[in-house]
């Protein structure tokens, strides 16, 4: 596995793959890799001639007072894990390499970014779309893999890719969970043992909603109420949002129809966790 | 010469050029071609294996009350002219092809877009950068050619291309003028014979400023004053702006140093014309 830190070197590598007619699969990450990321890498490994993983803790997608500084980083461990998943190139640029002095360009997706995480993290998705657009141009993948865990992010990246005519197939991969149901996240390391237990309330609330949907419930307000009640029963949990939206434009729905997304963000102590479930009715 | 109207067909063509290792030169235009555009096409023809010209009157870069509806259009004439310049593909998508229902993504360049035309045409450059980003992704050129006539636009597109790591060389081509000095523009057709004569005041004012710079003047305020006096002496002319900025970040300068841009926008009757001059001191 090759470690590349400069854009120039990464671009040269990408150009060579195009010239040689090789397909490139790409997994953009912020590092501190877990089984969720590794699943994306394996998917890329199966489908593509070459696999690139980027590790970049993107300052642009963190707001003031968020955890940019504390976000866990361990490039040595990440390198080992990526190599074990059959990755060909680990692209790990410095911040100044991605945003040099005089940097002034931003990519915005409107409407889809307004609610859910966009409401509580203003500017977050602008940071995400800008860095993903840059990474797509640098790595030039044929296919890019994103976790369904960040469902709103996935819808926004699909939208951007289609709107800007980026020649990349965006593939969403189902959430990978711990044995007890907790969605995998690099931020799970922030949790104390007690909080780790309390964090199960997210997947538990979603499971209850799924049961209701399966027994015929289509009313978004009643589903939200069940989820809210489940979460508020946990003393360590504080709801940021519980939203039911269409899965394409991320707009609130009153009644479930077509592809809907039930998404939640909950603070467990100081740690903000998200989880979601797509329901097709 | 091939006329392509669908993005799918254009993308397939571009992909084939990449596969065959052919270089592509690209000239994005709003059509109603004049000698300025043809000069760009000839430059592309000399340097590249294939030449693509796009014709798209981009609604996104026109403000409310601007001339989107009246903007001159003549695809038959444009096709003939492009073919005579050795163009291989004319890409002329419909508005709904470029901005389908549910379109939500925009590219913004900050700071460089604030002054000059950005101040009097809010949203204009957002429209320009968004459409150029899309066109670059669809056409996948190695080199793209832009007229120096739209100097601020050129600086903004250079900035966007560098910031978003778009794999395109952006080439600026000097202003092409009529024999009497008027910078070529598709909007010159709006001018009555009397206005056409009055419009010479733009290039005349710039010529006076050049004389002053050549005789050692470096003070931006005094240069602006000379330009302003020259233009206001013309009864049909009304100044929109007279600006002296650095040519990279388009920020006002007090004293000429390095690469500076002297740029002006003037209304002649109802027609807004721009002209400029780059001075290297």
From TrEMBL, chains A, B:
Protein name per UniProt: Pantothenate synthetase
Binding site for ATP: 30-37, 147-150, 176, 184-187
Gene Ontology molecular functions: ATP binding; pantoate-beta-alanine ligase activity
Organism the protein comes from: Heliomicrobium undosum
Nucleotide-binding is among the record's keywords: yes
Keywords from the named record: ATP-binding, Cytoplasm, Ligase, Nucleotide-binding, Pantothenate biosynthesis
Primary subcellular site in the record, as a coarse category: cytoplasm
List of residues binding (R)-pantoate: 61, 153
Assigned GO CC terms: cytosol
GO process terms (BP): pantothenate biosynthetic process
Cross-referenced Pfam families: Pantoate_ligase
